[in-house]
Amino acid sequence: PKPVPTAPTPPPAIDVMELVDLIAGAPSALPDPDHVADLVERVRHDPDLISTMPPFPASSARIIELTERENLDLNEVIRVLHWEPAAATEILRMANTAGFSRGTVDDLRDAVFTLGLAEVGSIAAAVGARALFDIEARQEHAAFARLWGALHHDALVAAFTASWLAQALHLPRYDRIFLRAVIGSCGRPLALRVIARHLVDGRCASRPLPQTVLAALDELDAEVRDLALRTWDLPPSLRDVVAANNPQERAVVDVVQGV
């Protein structure tokens, strides 16, 4: 006789939190609020907070300022780029990628024409912001080696995503949005410099837990960023971009950074 078919065994039940854990991994422990508050106060009351802030690279700021002008002098852009070899190298590299070039571009002027001023301004912003995430002191870098890279990565991901979204929405100046996102992400690495310095010179009795550091950086982010913007001698056009009084520009960046 033929075997009688049986109903398939239903999969084991799983609740929502188990599903979240399967996808994202187990959630990290919440930081101790007192430890977070102590770390935040250490940064806020550091007497060297302002003096140790790295300046925003003047040549990158100058390039961005020039690309903002209505009556642009291309020769002046090329001259300034020669003083910023990192930006010039990146512009040439981008101009020779498949998305832009139909042949080999080995001249800086041709590269600027190939990319367009919006892209040149975005590249200058990205290269300039890289200095805000670099730290020269080896011990201070080693204290949070992985976190430095993660902060820089997250800032560029947010900037490129905001720029892409602005283009998809047909906003006219997506390069301004890129710049706002990049410079707007500087608060966390600047605050981390202070925490790393305190850890290296012994002012922190013990190494704070990763979740404590991240929570403190989140709380300090806007405060330290605004302090840096007041400290840096940015040209008016650049300050206007970062302020982003345009509600569409502000909304795009806020949505992407929030996600």
Write structural notes for this entry.
- The protein is an all-alpha fold.
- 67% of the residues lie in helices and 0% in strands.
- The protein has 14 helices and no strands.
- It has helices at residues 16-24, 33-44, 58-68, 74-82, 85-95, 108-115, 117-133, 138-143, 145-168, 174-183, 187-200, 210-231, 236-243, 247-258.
- α2 (33-44) packs parallel to α12 and α7 packs parallel to α10.
- It is elongated, with a radius of gyration of 23 Å.
- The termini are far apart.
Q: What does this entry show, briefly?
A:
This protein has 259 residues and is mainly alpha-helical. 67% of the residues lie in helices and 0% in strands.
- The parts where pLDDT drops under 50 for at least 5 residues are none
Number of DSSP strand runs: 0
Give the averaged pLDDT, no decimals.
79
The shape is elongated
Largest sheet: none
Helix content: 55-70%
Strands, helices and their partners?
Blueprint: H1 16-24, H2 33-44, H3 58-68, H4 74-82, H5 85-95, H6 108-115, H7 117-133, H8 138-143, H9 145-168, H10 174-183, H11 187-200, H12 210-231, H13 236-243, H14 247-258
Helix pairs in contact: 2-12, 3-4, 3-7, 5-6, 5-7, 7-10, 9-10, 9-14, 10-14, 11-12
Features:
0% strand, 14 helices, 259 residues, elongated, mainly alpha
